[in-house]
Amino acid sequence: MTDISNSDVPPPVGAAPRRQTRATVVRWGGHAVQVGGGAPVVVQSMTNTDTADAAATAAQVRALAQAGSELVRITVNTPEAARAVPAIRAQLDRMNVSVPLVGDFHYNGHKLLGQFPECAQTLSKYRINPGNMGGGKKRDDNFAQMIEVACRHDKPIRIGVNWGSLDHELLARMMDDNARRAQPWEAQAVMRDALVISAISNARRAEELGLNPNAIVLSCKVSHVQDLITVYRDLSARCDYPLHLGLTEAGMGSKGIVASTAALAVLLQQGIGDTIRISLTPEPGGDRRREVVVAQEILQTMGLRAFTPMVVACPGCGRTSSTVFQELANDIQAYLREQMPLWKTRYPGVENMNVAVMGCVVNGPGESRHADIGISLPGTGEVPSAPVYIDGERTITLKGDNIAVEFQAIVENYVQRRYGRSAHASQS
Questions:
Q1: Using alpha carbons only, what angle is made at residue 290 by residues 286 and 292, rounded to the nearest 5 degrees?
Q2: 373 and 290 in one domain?
Q3: pLDDT of residue 354 exceeding 60
Q4: What pLDDT is stored for residue 214 in this prediction?
Q5: 119 labeled binding residue
Q6: 360 is in an annotated binding site
Q7: Gene3D superfamilies, from UniProt (predicted)?
């Protein structure tokens, strides 16, 4: 018979200790974002506007930054785009948006950085993909030119290797070497190994060219969950550079969210990853900020960071034929997120608050007691009343047609009382 007695030590809870890495700092003016070196995992995103349209790009950068993106990447692919970068930065500065801008370069980045020095100086970081910079000596020269500009302007870089644009010469050599093995690897395994070797070898080449080792972040992007997990486990074991996590093309809607969460949650739980981006394909006209929200929710639900108060809500069942609890949960969640740009400065610590909006008496009172503030709405056939729990105690029962408005007011009063300056003063 299996022994089911308790051990002397409870099982551990939480992610593994973070992997030790160098610290890379990305700056604009007096604002600095640290990637790696024990800093919290950084959330970043990327615009999908035409960078040459400075007004539209600045507006989207601002929206992404206000949603919580701590770094924002913009495409720099043409002379017009490179010429627009200083104007984008100037507009952001006028709007008091200090988020650092990362320039995404492919194919002609060495030319653009050389031809537009103001662009090179204005960007806070460069993203370089060595797999699409040509071949042979041409590739080496182009890469060296970009590193020289980064050194001259004291800019960090991300060497971003992508399996869709992997160095063909490196991959061909490794495939040939693999064919001579007594037991050759599968082609997919060779490709994964090539990604890791390409990233690390280019980082070392950048150091040889004079780049500060603390100015390098690495990424190895693929589209499949299991490949990404395997590649990053291998990469993290072979170097101490900070790592940028993300599927290169996660997909649309729930598929993209699920794939990104499945891959990144495994790696983050193992202490791997220093900055993340969720590469969601937006629906036509969709909100680009969704990828920021998903990134934040992955980190917050895993207990790695806190960005906004979390709402617990039941999924609904036959006991909850009314949609009142669904509407209230949605309204409260939207309300809390909308308040955060103001609340994060006015009410420190409010991002750790938990709110419960429950739909019936089965789990409603219990979940509400466990939350900082919670409400248990009446299910089908239950007494039409909604008890409210604050810090585990039942405090008031709401009734009538204005439950949503009254509960929102209770939440706001609770935030002011618990997280306001007077509350912090009384605790000190």
A1: 145
A2: no
A3: yes
A4: 98
A5: no
A6: yes
A7: Dihydropteroate synthase-like (3.20.20.20), Sulfite Reductase Hemoprotein, domain 1 (3.30.413.10)
